[in-house]
Amino acid sequence: MKQQRLLLPYVTSKGWLYAAALLAIALGNIIQSLYPRVLGEFTDKLQSRSLTPEIIAQSALLLAGIAVLFTCLAGSGQYLVMRLGREFERLTRKQLFRHFTRLSEAYYASHGVGHMLSYVLSDVKSVREAISSCFSQTANAVILLISALIMMKVSGLPLGLITLCVSPLLLIPVLVVYFGPRIRKRSREVQNDLAAMTESAEEQIGGMRVTQKFSVEPMMEARFGSHVDEVYSSQLSLVKMSSLFQALIPFLGSVSLVLTLVAGGYQALTGAITIGMFVSLTLYMRLIINPLQMIGNVINTMQRSRASLERLQELLSTRPDIRNAADPLPFPAEAGIVIKGLTYSYPGAAQPALQDIELQIRQGWTTGLIGRTGSGKTTLAKLLLRMMEAPEGAILIDGLDIRGIDVHSLRDSIAYVPQDGFLFSTTLRDNIAFAKRDADQQEVEEASRYAGIYENILEFKDGFSTKLGERGVTLSGGQRQRTSLARGLIKQAPLLILDDSVSAVDAVTESAIVASIRQVRRNKTTLIIAHRISALKHADEIIVLDEGRIVQRGTHESLLQEQGLYAELASLQQGGMGHGRTGA
Ligand SMILES: Nc1ncnc2c1ncn2[C@@H]1O[C@H](COP(=O)(O)OP(=O)(O)OP(=O)(O)O)[C@@H](O)[C@H]1O
Protein backbone atom coordinates (compact mmCIF):
# COMPACT_ATOMS: atom_id res chain seq x y z
CA MET A 1 0.00 0.00 0.00
CA LYS A 2 1.47 3.34 -1.04
CA GLN A 3 1.66 5.64 1.97
CA GLN A 4 0.03 8.99 1.58
CA ARG A 5 2.60 11.66 2.52
CA LEU A 6 1.12 14.33 4.71
CA LEU A 7 3.84 16.55 6.07
CA LEU A 8 6.33 16.97 3.25
CA PRO A 9 3.80 18.26 0.69
CA TYR A 10 2.51 20.76 3.25
CA VAL A 11 5.92 22.05 4.30
CA THR A 12 7.00 22.25 0.64
CA SER A 13 3.88 24.17 -0.32
CA LYS A 14 4.62 26.67 2.44
CA GLY A 15 8.37 26.65 1.76
CA TRP A 16 8.70 30.44 1.42
CA LEU A 17 6.89 31.14 4.65
CA TYR A 18 8.99 28.58 6.52
CA ALA A 19 12.13 30.11 4.98
CA ALA A 20 11.01 33.60 6.11
CA ALA A 21 10.35 32.30 9.63
CA LEU A 22 13.73 30.59 9.70
CA LEU A 23 15.45 33.76 8.54
CA ALA A 24 13.77 35.84 11.25
CA ILE A 25 14.67 33.29 13.95
CA ALA A 26 18.25 33.03 12.63
CA LEU A 27 18.81 36.80 12.56
CA GLY A 28 17.31 37.13 16.03
CA ASN A 29 19.66 34.50 17.43
CA ILE A 30 22.74 35.80 15.65
CA ILE A 31 22.05 39.21 17.15
CA GLN A 32 21.47 37.67 20.58
CA SER A 33 24.81 35.86 20.41
CA LEU A 34 26.54 39.27 20.43
CA TYR A 35 25.68 40.05 24.03
CA PRO A 36 28.27 37.83 25.85
CA ARG A 37 30.94 39.52 23.76
CA VAL A 38 29.71 42.98 24.78
CA LEU A 39 29.75 41.92 28.45
CA GLY A 40 33.21 40.30 28.07
CA GLU A 41 34.71 43.47 26.61
CA PHE A 42 32.96 45.52 29.28
CA THR A 43 34.56 43.33 32.00
CA ASP A 44 38.04 43.71 30.49
CA LYS A 45 37.66 47.50 30.38
CA LEU A 46 36.41 47.48 33.95
CA GLN A 47 39.44 45.44 35.02
CA SER A 48 41.93 47.61 33.11
CA ARG A 49 40.21 50.69 34.58
CA SER A 50 39.62 52.13 31.12
CA LEU A 51 35.85 52.24 31.59
CA THR A 52 34.28 55.65 30.97
CA PRO A 53 30.69 56.88 31.41
CA GLU A 54 30.42 57.03 27.59
CA ILE A 55 31.45 53.35 27.27
CA ILE A 56 28.90 52.41 29.95
CA ALA A 57 26.15 54.28 28.07
CA GLN A 58 27.23 52.79 24.72
CA SER A 59 27.29 49.26 26.13
CA ALA A 60 23.87 49.74 27.74
CA LEU A 61 22.45 51.05 24.48
CA LEU A 62 23.99 48.15 22.57
CA LEU A 63 22.47 45.60 24.97
CA ALA A 64 19.06 47.32 24.75
CA GLY A 65 19.31 47.32 20.93
CA ILE A 66 20.18 43.60 20.95
CA ALA A 67 17.17 42.89 23.19
CA VAL A 68 14.73 44.88 21.00
CA LEU A 69 15.96 43.37 17.72
CA PHE A 70 15.96 39.84 19.16
CA THR A 71 12.42 40.25 20.49
CA CYS A 72 11.08 41.60 17.17
CA LEU A 73 12.81 39.07 14.94
CA ALA A 74 12.41 35.95 17.06
CA GLY A 75 8.82 36.99 17.92
CA SER A 76 7.75 37.36 14.29
CA GLY A 77 9.50 34.10 13.32
CA GLN A 78 7.71 32.35 16.16
CA TYR A 79 4.31 33.82 15.14
CA LEU A 80 4.78 32.72 11.53
CA VAL A 81 5.68 29.18 12.53
CA MET A 82 2.73 28.90 14.95
CA ARG A 83 0.37 30.19 12.28
CA LEU A 84 1.68 27.63 9.79
CA GLY A 85 1.04 24.92 12.38
CA ARG A 86 -2.57 26.01 12.87
CA GLU A 87 -3.06 26.13 9.11
CA PHE A 88 -1.81 22.54 8.89
CA GLU A 89 -4.29 21.57 11.60
CA ARG A 90 -7.17 23.24 9.74
CA LEU A 91 -6.37 21.68 6.37
CA THR A 92 -5.66 18.21 7.76
CA ARG A 93 -8.91 18.07 9.75
CA LYS A 94 -10.83 18.92 6.58
CA GLN A 95 -8.83 16.38 4.57
CA LEU A 96 -9.55 13.71 7.18
CA PHE A 97 -13.27 14.42 7.13
CA ARG A 98 -13.31 14.23 3.33
CA HIS A 99 -11.55 10.88 3.62
CA PHE A 100 -14.07 9.67 6.23
CA THR A 101 -16.92 10.36 3.79
CA ARG A 102 -15.35 7.91 1.34
CA LEU A 103 -14.73 5.04 3.72
CA SER A 104 -17.05 2.12 3.40
CA GLU A 105 -19.61 0.41 5.59
CA ALA A 106 -17.04 -2.30 6.36
CA TYR A 107 -14.55 0.26 7.67
CA TYR A 108 -17.12 1.83 9.97
CA ALA A 109 -18.21 -1.60 11.13
CA SER A 110 -14.70 -2.19 12.48
CA HIS A 111 -13.77 1.34 13.62
CA GLY A 112 -15.98 3.22 16.05
CA VAL A 113 -16.74 6.94 16.07
CA GLY A 114 -14.45 7.52 19.05
CA HIS A 115 -11.59 5.93 17.16
CA MET A 116 -12.11 8.27 14.22
CA LEU A 117 -12.38 11.25 16.57
CA SER A 118 -8.98 10.52 18.06
CA TYR A 119 -7.41 11.07 14.63
CA VAL A 120 -9.15 14.39 14.15
CA LEU A 121 -8.40 15.63 17.66
CA SER A 122 -5.26 14.22 19.23
CA ASP A 123 -3.18 12.99 16.26
CA VAL A 124 -3.58 16.18 14.24
CA LYS A 125 -2.75 18.28 17.31
CA SER A 126 0.33 16.23 18.03
CA VAL A 127 1.69 16.65 14.48
CA ARG A 128 0.90 20.36 14.59
CA GLU A 129 3.07 20.70 17.69
CA ALA A 130 5.99 19.21 15.78
CA ILE A 131 5.75 21.64 12.91
CA SER A 132 5.18 24.69 15.07
CA SER A 133 6.86 24.80 18.46
CA CYS A 134 9.38 22.02 17.69
CA PHE A 135 10.37 23.73 14.47
CA SER A 136 11.08 27.07 16.15
CA GLN A 137 12.81 25.53 19.17
CA THR A 138 15.07 23.39 16.97
CA ALA A 139 15.87 26.34 14.74
CA ASN A 140 16.63 28.41 17.85
CA ALA A 141 18.95 25.81 19.32
CA VAL A 142 20.86 25.02 16.12
CA ILE A 143 21.34 28.63 15.05
CA LEU A 144 22.28 29.76 18.52
CA LEU A 145 24.79 26.94 18.80
CA ILE A 146 26.43 27.78 15.48
CA SER A 147 26.49 31.54 16.03
CA ALA A 148 27.78 31.15 19.61
CA LEU A 149 30.60 28.87 18.40
CA ILE A 150 31.56 31.39 15.72
CA MET A 151 31.38 34.30 18.16
CA MET A 152 33.54 32.42 20.70
CA LYS A 153 36.18 31.92 18.02
CA VAL A 154 35.89 35.54 16.87
CA SER A 155 36.27 36.70 20.49
CA GLY A 156 39.71 35.05 20.48
CA LEU A 157 38.92 32.11 22.75
CA PRO A 158 41.31 29.19 22.06
CA LEU A 159 39.77 26.45 19.85
CA GLY A 160 40.96 23.69 22.20
CA LEU A 161 39.16 25.30 25.12
CA ILE A 162 35.94 25.76 23.13
CA THR A 163 36.05 22.12 21.94
CA LEU A 164 36.61 20.81 25.46
CA CYS A 165 33.74 22.86 26.90
CA VAL A 166 31.15 21.82 24.29
CA SER A 167 32.32 18.16 24.00
CA PRO A 168 29.73 16.71 26.46
CA LEU A 169 26.98 18.23 24.31
CA LEU A 170 28.17 16.12 21.37
CA LEU A 171 26.71 13.11 23.20
CA ILE A 172 23.19 14.47 22.65
CA PRO A 173 22.85 12.88 19.16
CA VAL A 174 23.86 9.52 20.69
CA LEU A 175 21.05 9.86 23.24
CA VAL A 176 18.63 10.79 20.46
CA VAL A 177 19.54 7.71 18.44
CA TYR A 178 19.03 5.46 21.47
CA PHE A 179 15.89 7.01 22.96
CA GLY A 180 14.16 8.26 19.79
CA PRO A 181 12.74 4.98 18.42
CA ARG A 182 11.85 3.77 21.92
CA ILE A 183 9.88 6.92 22.71
CA ARG A 184 8.17 6.72 19.34
CA LYS A 185 7.12 3.10 19.87
CA ARG A 186 5.66 3.89 23.28
CA SER A 187 3.95 7.02 21.94
CA ARG A 188 2.24 4.94 19.31
CA GLU A 189 0.97 2.58 21.98
CA VAL A 190 -0.38 5.56 23.94
CA GLN A 191 -2.14 6.94 20.86
CA ASN A 192 -3.71 3.53 20.12
CA ASP A 193 -4.87 3.15 23.71
CA LEU A 194 -6.24 6.70 23.70
CA ALA A 195 -8.18 5.90 20.52
CA ALA A 196 -9.65 2.79 22.16
CA MET A 197 -10.56 4.79 25.28
CA THR A 198 -12.28 7.54 23.24
CA GLU A 199 -14.17 4.86 21.36
CA SER A 200 -15.26 3.24 24.58
CA ALA A 201 -16.27 6.61 26.11
CA GLU A 202 -18.35 7.36 23.04
CA GLU A 203 -20.09 4.00 23.24
CA GLN A 204 -20.63 3.94 27.01
CA ILE A 205 -21.93 7.52 27.12
CA GLY A 206 -24.08 6.93 24.03
CA GLY A 207 -25.55 3.84 25.69
CA MET A 208 -25.91 5.42 29.13
CA ARG A 209 -29.71 5.37 29.05
CA VAL A 210 -29.73 1.65 28.27
CA THR A 211 -27.15 1.07 31.00
CA GLN A 212 -29.32 2.85 33.56
CA LYS A 213 -32.48 1.04 32.49
CA PHE A 214 -30.74 -2.32 32.91
CA SER A 215 -29.05 -1.13 36.08
CA VAL A 216 -25.64 -2.39 34.96
CA GLU A 217 -23.63 0.73 35.82
CA PRO A 218 -20.83 -1.17 37.67
CA MET A 219 -20.22 -3.37 34.63
CA MET A 220 -20.01 -0.35 32.31
CA GLU A 221 -17.76 1.47 34.77
CA ALA A 222 -15.46 -1.54 34.78
CA ARG A 223 -15.45 -1.67 30.97
CA PHE A 224 -14.52 1.99 30.61
CA GLY A 225 -12.19 1.74 33.61
CA SER A 226 -10.16 -0.99 31.95
CA HIS A 227 -9.48 1.32 28.98
CA VAL A 228 -8.49 4.14 31.34
CA ASP A 229 -6.08 1.76 33.11
CA GLU A 230 -4.53 0.73 29.81
CA VAL A 231 -3.98 4.37 28.83
CA TYR A 232 -2.46 4.99 32.25
CA SER A 233 -0.03 2.11 32.01
CA SER A 234 1.08 2.90 28.45
CA GLN A 235 1.49 6.57 29.40
CA LEU A 236 3.52 5.57 32.42
CA SER A 237 5.83 3.50 30.29
CA LEU A 238 6.25 6.46 27.92
CA VAL A 239 6.81 8.89 30.78
CA LYS A 240 9.56 6.67 32.25
CA MET A 241 11.47 6.65 28.98
CA SER A 242 10.97 10.31 28.14
CA SER A 243 11.78 11.52 31.67
CA LEU A 244 15.07 9.66 31.65
CA PHE A 245 15.90 11.14 28.28
CA GLN A 246 14.91 14.65 29.34
CA ALA A 247 16.95 14.40 32.55
CA LEU A 248 20.12 13.26 30.75
CA ILE A 249 20.31 16.29 28.48
CA PRO A 250 20.51 18.95 31.25
CA PHE A 251 23.02 16.64 32.94
CA LEU A 252 25.27 16.90 29.88
CA GLY A 253 24.76 20.68 30.03
CA SER A 254 25.91 20.75 33.64
CA VAL A 255 29.02 18.67 32.76
CA SER A 256 29.78 21.28 30.09
CA LEU A 257 29.51 24.08 32.64
CA VAL A 258 31.78 22.26 35.08
CA LEU A 259 34.40 21.82 32.34
CA THR A 260 34.03 25.52 31.41
CA LEU A 261 34.63 26.54 35.00
CA VAL A 262 37.63 24.27 35.49
CA ALA A 263 39.39 24.68 32.13
CA GLY A 264 38.38 28.35 31.60
CA GLY A 265 39.22 29.27 35.20
CA TYR A 266 42.60 27.57 34.94
CA GLN A 267 43.43 29.37 31.68
CA ALA A 268 42.34 32.72 33.15
CA LEU A 269 44.59 32.02 36.16
CA THR A 270 47.57 31.29 33.96
CA GLY A 271 46.81 34.36 31.85
CA ALA A 272 46.11 32.38 28.66
CA ILE A 273 42.74 34.20 28.46
CA THR A 274 41.56 37.48 30.01
CA ILE A 275 38.90 37.65 32.73
CA GLY A 276 36.57 39.24 30.19
CA MET A 277 37.11 36.22 27.90
CA PHE A 278 36.33 33.89 30.79
CA VAL A 279 33.11 35.83 31.50
CA SER A 280 32.04 35.66 27.85
CA LEU A 281 32.93 31.92 27.68
CA THR A 282 30.65 31.10 30.62
CA LEU A 283 27.91 33.32 29.20
CA TYR A 284 28.21 31.62 25.80
CA MET A 285 27.97 28.20 27.41
CA ARG A 286 24.82 29.25 29.28
CA LEU A 287 23.40 30.70 26.09
CA ILE A 288 23.91 27.37 24.30
CA ILE A 289 22.79 25.13 27.14
CA ASN A 290 19.37 26.71 27.62
CA PRO A 291 17.98 25.88 24.18
CA LEU A 292 19.84 22.56 24.12
CA GLN A 293 18.03 21.59 27.29
CA MET A 294 14.79 22.29 25.50
CA ILE A 295 15.90 19.97 22.72
CA GLY A 296 15.09 17.07 25.04
CA ASN A 297 11.53 18.29 25.16
CA VAL A 298 11.48 18.87 21.42
CA ILE A 299 12.69 15.38 20.63
CA ASN A 300 10.12 13.88 22.96
CA THR A 301 7.37 15.81 21.22
CA MET A 302 8.79 14.96 17.80
CA GLN A 303 8.75 11.24 18.52
CA ARG A 304 5.17 11.47 19.73
CA SER A 305 4.28 13.45 16.62
CA ARG A 306 5.97 10.94 14.38
CA ALA A 307 3.84 8.18 15.86
CA SER A 308 0.74 10.31 15.20
CA LEU A 309 1.91 11.19 11.72
CA GLU A 310 2.34 7.49 10.93
CA ARG A 311 -1.20 6.81 12.16
CA LEU A 312 -2.61 9.66 10.08
CA GLN A 313 -0.69 8.61 6.99
CA GLU A 314 -1.89 5.03 7.37
CA LEU A 315 -5.49 6.20 7.70
CA LEU A 316 -5.25 8.51 4.70
CA SER A 317 -3.69 5.67 2.69
CA THR A 318 -6.64 3.33 3.30
CA ARG A 319 -8.20 3.03 -0.07
CA PRO A 320 -12.01 3.22 0.04
CA ASP A 321 -13.44 -0.25 -0.70
CA ILE A 322 -16.01 1.23 -3.02
CA ARG A 323 -14.43 3.12 -5.85
CA ASN A 324 -15.61 4.33 -9.21
CA ALA A 325 -14.54 2.41 -12.30
CA ALA A 326 -12.11 4.13 -14.65
CA ASP A 327 -14.95 5.55 -16.77
CA PRO A 328 -18.02 5.53 -14.55
CA LEU A 329 -21.41 5.86 -16.19
CA PRO A 330 -24.29 7.92 -14.83
CA PHE A 331 -27.34 6.16 -13.40
CA PRO A 332 -29.31 4.84 -16.40
CA ALA A 333 -32.64 6.20 -17.63
CA GLU A 334 -34.65 3.32 -16.14
CA ALA A 335 -34.35 1.73 -12.75
CA GLY A 336 -35.18 -1.86 -13.74
CA ILE A 337 -32.82 -4.21 -11.91
CA VAL A 338 -31.71 -7.72 -12.78
CA ILE A 339 -29.84 -9.77 -10.18
CA LYS A 340 -28.06 -12.84 -11.51
CA GLY A 341 -26.57 -15.58 -9.36
CA LEU A 342 -25.73 -13.16 -6.54
CA THR A 343 -23.90 -14.68 -3.59
CA TYR A 344 -22.51 -12.35 -0.95
CA SER A 345 -20.58 -13.07 2.24
CA TYR A 346 -19.49 -10.51 4.82
CA PRO A 347 -15.75 -10.60 5.47
CA GLY A 348 -15.00 -13.27 8.05
CA ALA A 349 -18.57 -14.64 8.09
CA ALA A 350 -18.99 -18.41 8.13
CA GLN A 351 -22.14 -18.36 5.98
CA PRO A 352 -23.00 -16.22 2.97
CA ALA A 353 -25.65 -13.60 3.81
CA LEU A 354 -27.15 -14.07 0.33
CA GLN A 355 -26.93 -17.14 -1.92
CA ASP A 356 -27.73 -17.67 -5.60
CA ILE A 357 -30.15 -14.78 -5.81
CA GLU A 358 -31.93 -14.60 -9.17
CA LEU A 359 -34.31 -11.69 -9.19
CA GLN A 360 -35.86 -9.03 -11.33
CA ILE A 361 -37.04 -5.72 -9.88
CA ARG A 362 -39.03 -4.48 -12.85
CA GLN A 363 -39.01 -0.86 -13.94
CA GLY A 364 -42.14 0.85 -12.65
CA TRP A 365 -43.15 -2.06 -10.43
CA THR A 366 -43.45 -2.29 -6.71
CA THR A 367 -41.52 -5.31 -5.51
CA GLY A 368 -41.90 -6.62 -1.99
CA LEU A 369 -39.18 -8.44 -0.06
CA ILE A 370 -40.14 -10.36 3.04
CA GLY A 371 -38.34 -12.83 5.22
CA ARG A 372 -37.39 -13.71 8.73
CA THR A 373 -34.93 -11.57 10.59
CA GLY A 374 -31.36 -12.12 9.39
CA SER A 375 -32.51 -13.53 6.05
CA GLY A 376 -30.46 -11.00 4.07
CA LYS A 377 -33.01 -8.31 3.14
CA THR A 378 -30.96 -5.30 4.28
CA THR A 379 -27.83 -6.85 2.79
CA LEU A 380 -29.53 -6.83 -0.60
CA ALA A 381 -30.55 -3.17 -0.18
CA LYS A 382 -27.01 -2.20 0.79
CA LEU A 383 -25.60 -4.01 -2.23
CA LEU A 384 -27.98 -2.01 -4.42
CA LEU A 385 -26.62 1.17 -2.84
CA ARG A 386 -23.04 -0.10 -3.26
CA MET A 387 -22.40 0.24 0.43
CA MET A 388 -20.72 -3.10 -0.16
CA GLU A 389 -19.53 -4.39 -3.52
CA ALA A 390 -21.44 -7.18 -5.27
CA PRO A 391 -19.48 -9.55 -7.51
CA GLU A 392 -18.99 -8.35 -11.07
CA GLY A 393 -22.02 -8.85 -13.31
CA ALA A 394 -24.27 -9.90 -10.42
CA ILE A 395 -26.40 -6.74 -10.32
CA LEU A 396 -27.44 -4.99 -13.53
CA ILE A 397 -29.43 -1.76 -13.60
CA ASP A 398 -31.09 -1.16 -16.95
CA GLY A 399 -28.54 -3.61 -18.36
CA LEU A 400 -25.48 -1.85 -16.82
CA ASP A 401 -23.28 -3.57 -14.27
CA ILE A 402 -23.78 -1.66 -11.02
CA ARG A 403 -20.00 -1.56 -10.57
CA GLY A 404 -19.68 0.58 -13.69
CA ILE A 405 -22.13 3.21 -12.42
CA ASP A 406 -20.81 6.34 -10.74
CA VAL A 407 -21.26 5.87 -6.99
CA HIS A 408 -22.52 9.39 -6.42
CA SER A 409 -25.00 9.21 -9.29
CA LEU A 410 -26.19 5.78 -8.11
CA ARG A 411 -26.85 6.89 -4.54
CA ASP A 412 -28.37 10.13 -5.75
CA SER A 413 -30.87 8.09 -7.81
CA ILE A 414 -31.91 5.84 -4.98
CA ALA A 415 -33.94 6.96 -2.00
CA TYR A 416 -33.16 4.52 0.80
CA VAL A 417 -35.26 4.71 3.93
CA PRO A 418 -33.87 2.48 6.68
CA GLN A 419 -35.76 1.25 9.70
CA ASP A 420 -33.94 3.58 12.08
CA GLY A 421 -33.06 6.60 9.97
CA PHE A 422 -30.57 8.89 11.70
CA LEU A 423 -31.89 12.42 12.19
CA PHE A 424 -29.56 15.38 12.61
CA SER A 425 -29.71 18.01 15.36
CA THR A 426 -31.29 20.58 13.10
CA THR A 427 -34.85 21.55 12.18
CA LEU A 428 -37.47 19.13 10.96
CA ARG A 429 -37.51 20.99 7.67
CA ASP A 430 -33.76 20.58 7.21
CA ASN A 431 -33.99 16.90 8.03
CA ILE A 432 -36.75 16.32 5.48
CA ALA A 433 -35.03 18.38 2.77
CA PHE A 434 -31.70 16.72 3.63
CA ALA A 435 -30.99 15.37 0.15
CA LYS A 436 -32.90 18.07 -1.70
CA ARG A 437 -31.61 21.33 -0.30
CA ASP A 438 -33.54 23.46 -2.80
CA ALA A 439 -36.93 21.96 -1.91
CA ASP A 440 -39.55 24.62 -1.21
CA GLN A 441 -41.94 24.56 1.73
CA GLN A 442 -44.71 23.06 -0.38
CA GLU A 443 -42.56 20.06 -1.34
CA VAL A 444 -41.51 19.56 2.28
CA GLU A 445 -45.13 19.63 3.41
CA GLU A 446 -46.21 17.29 0.63
CA ALA A 447 -43.53 14.73 1.50
CA SER A 448 -44.49 14.88 5.17
CA ARG A 449 -48.16 14.36 4.26
CA TYR A 450 -47.31 11.26 2.26
CA ALA A 451 -45.17 10.01 5.13
CA GLY A 452 -48.04 10.61 7.58
CA ILE A 453 -46.06 13.01 9.80
CA TYR A 454 -47.58 16.33 8.67
CA GLU A 455 -50.22 16.57 11.42
CA ASN A 456 -47.67 15.74 14.12
CA ILE A 457 -45.30 18.43 12.89
CA LEU A 458 -48.05 21.05 13.00
CA GLU A 459 -48.67 20.18 16.63
CA PHE A 460 -45.17 21.34 17.54
CA LYS A 461 -44.99 25.00 18.54
CA ASP A 462 -42.41 25.79 15.87
CA GLY A 463 -43.85 23.47 13.21
CA PHE A 464 -41.30 22.63 10.54
CA SER A 465 -38.76 24.92 12.26
CA THR A 466 -38.79 22.68 15.36
CA LYS A 467 -35.23 21.78 16.30
CA LEU A 468 -34.40 18.16 16.98
CA GLY A 469 -31.63 16.67 19.04
CA GLU A 470 -29.89 17.44 22.28
CA ARG A 471 -31.16 20.98 22.59
CA GLY A 472 -34.47 20.36 20.82
CA VAL A 473 -37.43 18.09 20.67
CA THR A 474 -37.08 14.33 21.00
CA LEU A 475 -39.32 12.49 18.58
CA SER A 476 -40.99 9.19 19.32
CA GLY A 477 -39.74 6.11 17.41
CA GLY A 478 -42.71 6.24 15.02
CA GLN A 479 -42.33 10.00 14.44
CA ARG A 480 -38.63 9.55 13.73
CA GLN A 481 -39.38 6.82 11.25
CA ARG A 482 -41.98 8.88 9.42
CA THR A 483 -39.67 11.94 9.28
CA SER A 484 -37.02 9.70 7.78
CA LEU A 485 -39.61 8.38 5.31
CA ALA A 486 -40.51 11.96 4.28
CA ARG A 487 -36.79 12.57 3.71
CA GLY A 488 -36.74 9.61 1.32
CA LEU A 489 -39.98 10.49 -0.48
CA ILE A 490 -39.03 14.11 -1.16
CA LYS A 491 -36.15 12.90 -3.33
CA GLN A 492 -38.60 11.48 -5.89
CA ALA A 493 -35.79 9.16 -6.87
CA PRO A 494 -36.01 6.66 -9.76
CA LEU A 495 -35.69 3.86 -7.19
CA LEU A 496 -37.18 3.96 -3.69
CA ILE A 497 -36.14 1.33 -1.17
CA LEU A 498 -38.16 1.17 2.02
CA ASP A 499 -36.31 -1.04 4.47
CA ASP A 500 -38.84 -1.81 7.18
CA SER A 501 -39.56 1.91 7.14
CA VAL A 502 -42.98 1.85 8.79
CA SER A 503 -42.39 -0.90 11.32
CA ALA A 504 -42.81 1.48 14.29
CA VAL A 505 -46.26 2.81 13.37
CA ASP A 506 -49.68 1.38 14.21
CA ALA A 507 -51.68 -0.59 11.66
CA VAL A 508 -54.05 2.28 10.78
CA THR A 509 -51.23 4.75 10.14
CA GLU A 510 -49.32 2.08 8.25
CA SER A 511 -52.18 1.40 5.85
CA ALA A 512 -52.62 5.16 5.22
CA ILE A 513 -48.89 5.53 4.51
CA VAL A 514 -48.83 2.47 2.24
CA ALA A 515 -51.79 3.84 0.27
CA SER A 516 -50.15 7.24 -0.22
CA ILE A 517 -46.83 5.66 -1.21
CA ARG A 518 -48.64 3.59 -3.83
CA GLN A 519 -50.16 6.79 -5.15
CA VAL A 520 -46.95 8.81 -5.21
CA ARG A 521 -44.85 5.95 -6.60
CA ARG A 522 -47.27 4.89 -9.32
CA ASN A 523 -45.19 3.65 -12.31
CA LYS A 524 -41.96 4.23 -10.38
CA THR A 525 -39.66 1.44 -9.25
CA THR A 526 -40.07 0.72 -5.56
CA LEU A 527 -38.67 -2.01 -3.35
CA ILE A 528 -40.52 -2.52 -0.08
CA ILE A 529 -38.71 -4.60 2.51
CA ALA A 530 -40.89 -5.54 5.45
CA HIS A 531 -41.65 -8.04 8.15
CA ARG A 532 -45.33 -7.27 8.05
CA ILE A 533 -47.35 -8.63 5.18
CA SER A 534 -49.71 -5.64 5.44
CA ALA A 535 -46.86 -3.34 4.34
CA LEU A 536 -46.24 -5.11 1.04
CA LYS A 537 -49.26 -7.18 0.10
CA HIS A 538 -50.15 -4.76 -2.71
CA ALA A 539 -46.76 -5.20 -4.36
CA ASP A 540 -46.75 -6.34 -7.99
CA GLU A 541 -44.38 -9.14 -7.00
CA ILE A 542 -43.33 -10.42 -3.59
CA ILE A 543 -40.06 -12.23 -2.98
CA VAL A 544 -39.69 -14.41 0.10
CA LEU A 545 -36.17 -14.78 1.48
CA ASP A 546 -35.07 -17.38 3.97
CA GLU A 547 -31.51 -17.86 5.22
CA GLY A 548 -30.14 -15.87 2.32
CA ARG A 549 -32.03 -17.75 -0.41
CA ILE A 550 -35.20 -16.95 -2.33
CA VAL A 551 -37.71 -19.57 -1.30
CA GLN A 552 -40.90 -18.21 -2.89
CA ARG A 553 -42.06 -15.53 -5.27
CA GLY A 554 -45.44 -14.38 -6.56
CA THR A 555 -48.29 -12.04 -5.72
CA HIS A 556 -49.91 -11.85 -2.31
CA GLU A 557 -52.83 -13.95 -3.50
CA SER A 558 -50.72 -16.60 -5.24
CA LEU A 559 -48.36 -16.89 -2.27
CA LEU A 560 -51.27 -17.37 0.12
CA GLN A 561 -52.36 -20.33 -1.98
CA GLU A 562 -48.94 -22.00 -1.64
CA GLN A 563 -47.73 -24.01 1.29
CA GLY A 564 -44.70 -22.13 2.52
CA LEU A 565 -43.12 -19.44 4.63
CA TYR A 566 -45.35 -16.65 3.29
CA ALA A 567 -48.59 -18.40 4.23
CA GLU A 568 -47.02 -19.30 7.57
CA LEU A 569 -46.13 -15.65 8.26
CA ALA A 570 -49.59 -14.56 7.13
CA SER A 571 -51.34 -16.92 9.49
CA LEU A 572 -49.05 -15.93 12.39
CA GLN A 573 -49.66 -12.24 11.77
CA GLN A 574 -53.39 -12.67 11.37
CA GLY A 575 -53.35 -14.61 14.58
CA GLY A 576 -52.54 -11.43 16.54
CA MET A 577 -48.78 -11.21 16.13
CA GLY A 578 -49.13 -8.82 13.23
CA HIS A 579 -47.28 -6.05 14.94
CA GLY A 580 -44.37 -8.06 16.22
CA ARG A 581 -41.16 -8.96 14.43
CA THR A 582 -41.86 -12.37 12.98
CA GLY A 583 -39.35 -15.07 13.38
CA ALA A 584 -37.23 -12.97 15.72
N1 LIG B 1 -21.73 -5.83 8.76
C1 LIG B 1 -21.95 -7.14 8.86
N2 LIG B 1 -20.91 -7.97 9.07
C2 LIG B 1 -21.09 -9.29 9.18
N3 LIG B 1 -22.30 -9.91 9.09
C3 LIG B 1 -23.38 -9.13 8.89
C4 LIG B 1 -23.26 -7.71 8.78
N4 LIG B 1 -24.49 -7.20 8.59
C5 LIG B 1 -25.33 -8.24 8.57
N5 LIG B 1 -24.67 -9.41 8.76
C6 LIG B 1 -25.24 -10.77 8.79
O1 LIG B 1 -25.82 -11.02 7.52
C7 LIG B 1 -27.04 -11.71 7.67
C8 LIG B 1 -28.16 -10.96 6.97
O2 LIG B 1 -28.35 -9.73 7.66
P1 LIG B 1 -29.39 -8.64 7.15
O3 LIG B 1 -29.21 -7.44 7.97
O4 LIG B 1 -29.25 -8.49 5.69
O5 LIG B 1 -30.76 -9.37 7.49
P2 LIG B 1 -32.24 -8.80 7.44
O6 LIG B 1 -33.05 -9.80 6.72
O7 LIG B 1 -32.26 -7.41 6.90
O8 LIG B 1 -32.61 -8.81 8.98
P3 LIG B 1 -33.64 -7.88 9.76
O9 LIG B 1 -34.98 -8.21 9.23
O10 LIG B 1 -33.48 -8.31 11.18
O11 LIG B 1 -33.26 -6.46 9.51
C9 LIG B 1 -27.26 -11.89 9.16
O12 LIG B 1 -26.83 -13.19 9.50
C10 LIG B 1 -26.37 -10.86 9.79
O13 LIG B 1 -25.88 -11.31 11.02
TrEMBL record:
InterPro entries: AAA+_ATPase, ABC1_TM_dom, ABC1_TM_sf, ABC_transporter-like_ATP-bd, P-loop_NTPase, Type_1_exporter. Residues 19-304 form the ABC transmembrane type-1 domain. GO terms for molecular function: ABC-type oligopeptide transporter activity; ATP binding; ATP hydrolysis activity. Pfam families: ABC_membrane, ABC_tran. SMART domains: AAA. It is found in: Cell membrane. Its main location: membrane. The chain crosses the membrane at residues 16-35, 55-81, 130-151, 157-179, 244-263, 269-289. Residues 337-572 form the ABC transporter domain. Keywords: ATP-binding, Cell membrane, Membrane, Nucleotide-binding, Transmembrane, Transmembrane helix, Transport. Gene3D superfamilies: ABC transporter type 1, transmembrane domain, P-loop containing nucleotide triphosphate hydrolases. It is a multi-pass membrane protein. GO terms for cellular component: plasma membrane. PANTHER family: ATP-BINDING CASSETTE SUB-FAMILY B MEMBER 10, MITOCHONDRIAL, ATP-DEPENDENT PERMEASE MDL1, MITOCHONDRIAL. This is ABC transporter. It comes from Paenibacillus herberti.
